[in-house]
Amino acid sequence: MKDKLQKIKDDAFAAIKSSEGLNALNDVRVNYLGKKGLLTSVLKGMKDVAPEDRPKVGALVNDTREAIEKLIEETKQKLEAAEMERRLKDEVIDVTLPARKSNCGHRHPNIITLEEVEDIFIGMGYEVVEGPEVEYDYYNFEALNIPANHPAKDEQDTFYINDKIVLRTQTSSVQARVMEQGKLPIRIISPGRAFRSDEVDATHSPSFHQIEGLVIDKGITFADLKGTLEVFAKKLYGEDTRVKFRPHHFPFTEPSAEVDVTCFKCKGKGCRFCKNSGWVEILGCGMVHPNVLRMSGIDPEIYQGFAFGVGLERITLFKYEIDDMRLLYENDMRFLKQF
Amino acid sequence: MNTSLSWIKQYVKGLDCSAEQYKDAITLTGTMVEGYERLDEDLEKIVVGRIEKIDRHPDADKLIVCQINIGEAENLQIVTGAPNVKEGDVIPVVLDGGKVATDHDRNRVKGGTKIKKGKLRGVESCGMLCSIEELGSSKEMYPEAPEDGIYIFDKDNPPALGSNAVEALGLNDVIFEHEITSNRVDCYGVVGIAREVAATFNKEFVYPPVECKGNDEKASDYIKVTTEDKQLCRRYCARVVKNLKIEPSPKWMQRRLASQGIRPINNIVDITNYIMAEFGQPMHAFDLSTVAGAQIIVKRAKDGDKFVTLDGQERTLDSDVLMICDGEKPIGIAGIMGGENSMITEDAKTLLFEAACFDGTNIRLSSKRIGLRTDASSKFEKGLDPNLTLEALNSACQLIEYLGAGEVVGGVVDVYNDVASDSRVKLEPDKINGLLGTDISKEDMIAYLKRVELIYDEKTGEVVAPSWRQDIGCSADLAEEVARFYGYDKIPTTLPKGEATMGGISFKMKVEKTARDVAEYCGFSQGMTYSFESPKVFDKLLIPENDGLRSVVSILNPLGEDYSIMRTQPLNGILTSLSNNYNRRNKDVMLYELANIYLPVGDDSEVDKEELKKRFGTTDVLPNERMQFVLGFYGD
Ligand SMILES: [Zn+2]
């Protein structure tokens, strides 16, 4: 037994010394110390050893294992140091060259879409502003014509911090904050996180992003809203995109509408993606309700305006034909690399 | 809200449109159709036939050979294994080349199954006799259908031989699924939708007059109603029906209910369900003999009261729950569910019909606290029109008389605490055009509004909105009504005029953008994680017991403990993302995240607490939100 162990040790040492890289070294480790390695098989042969000799043999096996492990570790460090040196040399060369595309990281698809949307609106003279995600009930609901006990509060399944502070359920909360500053005209978009207590599934997430838009000026009309969103849809999804406005209801706008665009997958012919309708709903909008203007100190007899809210995840999923919203928050490299 | 086309057509004179046309048109005026189902989609060539003669099959014990009269010179020979038919039965027959809705194992299949002439054990068979399942429906909806066998038409009143059996069964219909917006409570009933349909297609809306005088007695001699809480019970109407005759309701009513997905029970239950479907007004029927002291008192429960609802469950109440009580005890939870102690049983003789208008918010909150949401409560919580109450009640009594289900007692006990008035809004055509960006004439506006019974009053220059349109309160509301029927698609598309504004992003956003560019240039990809996480992360991250990071903003009603605090550091997010990747055996992962963190603000003396309280109802300051940039990577 002792001879057998000595032989294993000698063979292992020779193999370690001759291994030329980290991978080869690892093969040696597996070969000798792994689950099916040579040393392990010796341990399995222990049942043939007389019981009184077992502790002695056991100790011998352990000594052998430790010796091999120690040499592997030392060799590994040497190899790694060499590797590092080699890489550093490479790096020096790398930096002088333009970055290769494949070495670059990838932006999150949500943000790629968001920046595209921002650029479209900045081009039309919109300022991008942000507001708090943990927000007073007042800005999230009351100032938007959703008084206490309004059923819309239930519908939106709000997360509460206390009875007057919520995680905002919509980026519309920024509307009132901007309006009450009294600087007119207003032409903003406001992207950011919003929260609703939906369980996670393929189309729902308790945390998501919205892009709110708000324009207030003298003589702003529903026709302007239509024109603006048509420009937006065509720039985002292509010139041949058609836009459909359907009457809808939101407490903070009147008249209100939901907007469908022609399905960009089938170009309106009907497919699985658009449930055969040829249309996909992308946003809600309307003329700012006079109560909302009044509450923020703007006279609805002089000023009027429109607002719209786009679900960022929704348009991102459509744009990239992603089926499952959960993918956006798992940060799997194989997913992120595709963008 | 599901509604059958045939029911809508009853109220819309001359409506003639395909399902697709209906869907497109009504969606564009604001009642979105989410989908529809054609009941006869997979049915073809199915006629009414009578079995004239039955012979045994010469070579099969379980088969019989039927000679069937389908109104033509020659009888049809059909072989069947159905156990429930006999000579003289009138049955639905699918002819050679026709289609039924199920496969050979009687499971519903998309596209249906084609039936062909053929030989069954050597005997020619030219079609098939149909069960209700093969016609695409169920025994639930057609209670008279046999458990397992061929549907047999009523022998006293059979449809004509050779006529369309699908029509005879009322299956030549389309069921539309409408999405109703919360401002249009009136559209939770078929009548409300029909009114919208009439306006959309510019047809006449016809509603048959509701009238039910009843006998010479007086309901007030049978029952006294007191509303102790006038705020929560705006109106309570009651009528009495005696000499009840409880039996199945007629087929036409059963079909109507079936089209709404409501199972027929008996004439009384069916009438209340029918009225709820038609008007959106829930009703309740009490057995009058169980109502002690011949009186109804509407009042709040006491904290901790227990009550058994008619589903046999014991419910715990509190002082914000409104109860319907008699002279001694509670007999129902107002607007939510009646009590077991007063329910109508097969041998009830006299009933008390209730149609009431309760406070929507109160019903909504009570139903949430009790944990009982019913068809009735889901209607009440939207806030019903108090003028609907009496209309619905009288209509129910009219049905009682029409069906011969009992003798309606004359008069109504009507307690109306807060009378709803029509709302009036000044019609300002210039303002409406100015809001829409249109050039619609005043006359056209008046005509559009009239389609939905918003009537222009010449004398005052106002538009009068009926009580079922509680959503009409200002000029913008009228603008929407005008726009809906003018057509959103006809409104021009323009861009805002006025002074040009400078667009752009803030310095903070520019910095974030640069951070993203640099990180990506260096090979890092952008991750994104939730803003809330578990309070256990601090131990995991070895953050000391008394570290400031452990002071957090917590969510009162989180989705679970794992999502219950707002993050105060971005580490857990990035580590979780890395470990997700590691577990999926992704090599060499380099991630970054721009993560908002939320730091509670202590007692900040610089803030004017008084002002906060006044504006936001709390003295609490919002947490500090800060963007953190974090990198995480592993691999070679
Ligand atoms: Zn499509």
Question: Please, could you describe this protein's structure?
Answer:
The complex is a heterodimer of chains A (339) and B (636). Chain A has 339 residues and is an alpha+beta fold. Helices cover 43% and strands 20% of the residues of chain A. Chain A has helices at 2-18, 22-33, 38-44, 54-96, 109-123, 137-140, 151-155, 173-179, 222-237, 290-295, 312-320, 333-336; strands at residues 127-128, 134-136, 160-162, 165-167, 186-195, 207-217, 243-250, 253-262, 279-288, 304-311. In chain A, the strands form 2 sheets. Chain A has a 7-stranded mixed beta sheet, sandwiched between helices. Chain A starts with a helix and ends with a helix. Chain B is α+β, with helices and mostly antiparallel strands. Chain B is globular and about 95 Å long. Chains A and B meet through helix 5, strand 1, strand 2, helix 7 and strand 3 of A and helix 7, helix 10, helix 12, helix 13 and strand 27 of B. Zinc ion binds at residues 263, 265-266, 270-271, 273-274, 278 of chain A.
Summary, kept brief:
The complex is a heterodimer of chains A (339) and B (636). Chain A has 339 residues and is an alpha+beta fold.
